[in-house]
Amino acid sequence: MFKQFHNIETAFRHVRLFTFVLIAACMTIVCFVIIESYKMVTKAQERIYILASGKALEALAGERKDNIAVEARDHIKMFHFYFFQLDPDDKLIASHIGQALYLADGSAKKQYDDLSESGYYTGLISGNISQNVTMDSIVLNMDSYPFQFRYFGKQQIIRPTAVLTRNLITEGYLRSVGRSDANAHGFLIERWRITDNHDLEIKNR
Questions:
Q1: 3-state SS, residue 179
Q2: CA triple 145-149-150, angle to 5 deg
Q3: CA dihedral defined by 16, 17, 22, 28, rounded to 10 degrees?
Q4: Which residue has the higher pLDDT, 76 or 33?
Q5: What backbone phi and psi angles, to 5 degrees, belong to 6?
Q6: Which tens digits make up the pLDDT trace of 179-205?
Q7: Transmembrane region positions (predicted)?
Q8: What does the alpha-carbon distance between residue 151 and residue 74 come to, in Å, rounded to a whole number?
Q9: What is the pTM of this model?
Q10: At a CB cut-off of 8 Å and minimum separation 6, what does 76 contact?
């Protein structure tokens, strides 16, 4: 009789141990599934689709810190494009300068006011002169904030009779601001100035 009780107790212990092991295994599997599902959802959320010309293009979303240098350089490039890429059209000049001034502080506005007061933009229109800018490189210091930069490029002034090429070097600082439709990168150029703009060559047309 006592032997039967002993067998029952041993069997109960085995069943209880097996139950604990089964519960632990189930909990491990559930936790693993939850973690993997979270990873998959997070990865899926990083993928976005852009509709262009009726086609869905896949893109990957990233943290700002991953692309801050790329965005900063593009901000500087676009500012110089809008400020210096001009044609003899008062509406286009106003549009480009307006977009450029969204990307910089009062230092760029002062440069524009000085050029405007000297009749520079009026001369472009009356003389049928176009102005192009080509970027060579951008040196950006990300070690200190605000970020200091130096822009190197070429400026072409296209007249009806000649094409003048000028060296263009500017410098300034970048400060982070809120993003908007007019300032997609969320930077503001401060203390901007032109340090070199001498003539390189002139070609007759």
A1: coil
A2: 160
A3: 130
A4: 76
A5: -65, -40
A6: 888 898 899 999 999 999 999 999 998
A7: 15-35
A8: 11
A9: 0.69
A10: 138, 140, 149, 151, 174, 189
Which amino acid is present at 44?
A
Entry field: residues in the chain: 205
Given its phi and psi angles, is residue 2 left (phi above 0), alpha (psi -120 to 50 degrees) or beta? alpha
Residue 146: asked if its preceding bond is cis (omega within 30°), the reply is yes
Contact between 51 and 106 (Cβ < 8 Å): no
Residue 193, φ and ψ in degrees, nearest 5 = -155, 155
- Residue with token string 């070097």: 169
Task: Note whether 133 and 151 are within 8 A (CB).
Answer: no
| pLDDT higher than threshold 50 for residue 5 | no
Reading the block at residue 104, the tokens are 């910089």
Alpha helices in 46-175 (DSSP H): 64-84, 90-102, 106-117, 120-126
Which pair of tokens denotes residue 51? 């509709």
Q: What is the CA radius of gyration of the chain?
A: 32
Residue type, 111: Q
Q: Report whether 116 contacts 103 (CB < 8 A).
A: no
| 165 close to 198: Cβ distance less than 8 angstroms | no
Structure tokens at 70: 């790329």
pLDDT tens-digit map of 8-60: 667 667 777 778 888 888 888 888 888 887 777 666 555 555 555 555 555 55
